[in-house]
Every structure is written in C-alpha cells, then in structure tokens.
Amino acid sequence: VQLQASGGGLVQGGGSLRLSCAVRGSRNSVNIMAWYRQAAGKERELVARMSRTDRPDYADFVKGRFIISRDNALTRFSLEMNSLKPEDAAIYYCYVQDRWLKDYWGQGTLVTVSS
User: Fold this and answer.
1) pLDDT tens, 73-112?
2) Residue 27: helix, strand or coil by DSSP?
3) What pLDDT was estimated at residue 5?
4) Would you give the DSSP letter of residue 73?
5) First-last CA distance in the chain
6) Sign of the torsion formed by the C-alpha atoms of 101, 51, 46 and 21
7) Is 37 exposed, middle or buried (0-12, 13-18, 19+ CB in 10 A)?
C-alpha cells in the first residue's frame, strides 16, 4: 500500500482546510484509516481514525471541528478541518493498517495556522 498526502497549507485561525490521502496498491487489504499529526517538539498524536465498519473516532481536541471520511472504493480518504486554531499547526500524516496489522504512512503535509 502506498499513501500520498496533500492539501496542507497556510490558513488563518478560524479557517478551514481539507487534507486528502490517496491510497494506491492493495486497497482491499486496508482495515483502518487514520490521520496523525506532529507539532514541532512534540510527539506524533492520533487525530482521527476510522475502519471499514466502525464509526469514526476523534481525539478530544478536534471533536466537533474535524471530520474524517473516505470514498467507497477507498481510493482516497480525507480530513476536513474547520475552526482551525494555532495549536492545530503541525505536520499531518495519513496512515492505514492492513488486515495483517501492517502499518503504512504517508509522507506528511504541513498545516500552518496564523493567529
């Protein structure tokens, strides 16, 4: 499985961005899709995740503001980010786990939020 993240950029506080992760390869083997982020000087943290069958889960700090979604064929999954705050600034990584519990990461896309 190969992942390609896109959609990052500079946005003013309160604004919105939509990140996208293109999924190539053995898409049918993917069970879990997620977005993580890593801010400067901090550890990588889970932002949102979803599986093929379960409802999405969100970190408390993005609940009500971010939405994770995917297309039916799993060619792509997205993270819609609304009401962005300066503390949301980070490199965002897309991630999937396949049915054999192998992890795959995208290359990251930078989100900058101005105050």
Assistant:
1) 999 999 999 999 999 999 999 999 999 999 999 999 999 9
2) helix
3) 97
4) T
5) 37
6) positive
7) buried
3-state secondary structure of 32: strand
**CA pair distance 78, 7, nearest whole angstrom:** 9
Classify 21 as helix, strand or coil: strand
**Torsions phi, psi for 28 (to 5 deg):** -65, -15
Query: Identity (one letter) of the amino acid at 57?
Result: D
Q: What is the per-residue pLDDT for 52?
A: 85
Please give the structure tokens belonging to residue 35: 């977005």
Q: Where are the beta strands (DSSP E) in 1-115?
A: 2-6, 9-12, 17-24, 30-38, 45-51, 57-58, 66-70, 76-81, 90-98, 103-105, 109-114
DSSP string, 77-104: EEEEE-S--GGG-EEEEEEEEETT--EE
